[in-house]
Amino acid sequence: MMFTEICAGDLLGHIFWVPCDPETILVSEYGPKWYKDFPTNKFPWNARFNMNKTGKWTKEDMKEVYKIF
Question: Which InterPro entries match (predicted)?
Fold first, then answer.
């Protein structure tokens, strides 16, 4: 989808380029009820449709990328 009208928006004193009609984008991305809250505590985040296996880290790489705080 191509949006032609771009407006300037002020957020906490910073100017950002934003679509002039953001609701059109929200509806196209998230559907007509984009404003409704979805109960995320009931959402199965580890469902197979939400995961994509892309490979494995080496033991050396895991030391760099996996941190426990």
Answer: FKTN/MNN4/W02B3.4-1
Rounded-to-integer distance, Cα 24 and Cα 5, Å: 12
Q: What does each C-alpha distance from 66 to 34, 46, 53, 55, 57 come to in angstroms?
A: 34, 19, 17, 15, 10
Q: Tokens for 61?
A: 């790489």
CB 7 within 8 A of CB 16: no
In one-letter notation, the amino acid at residue 23 is: E
* Backbone Cα Rg of the chain: 20
pTM, to two decimals: 0.46
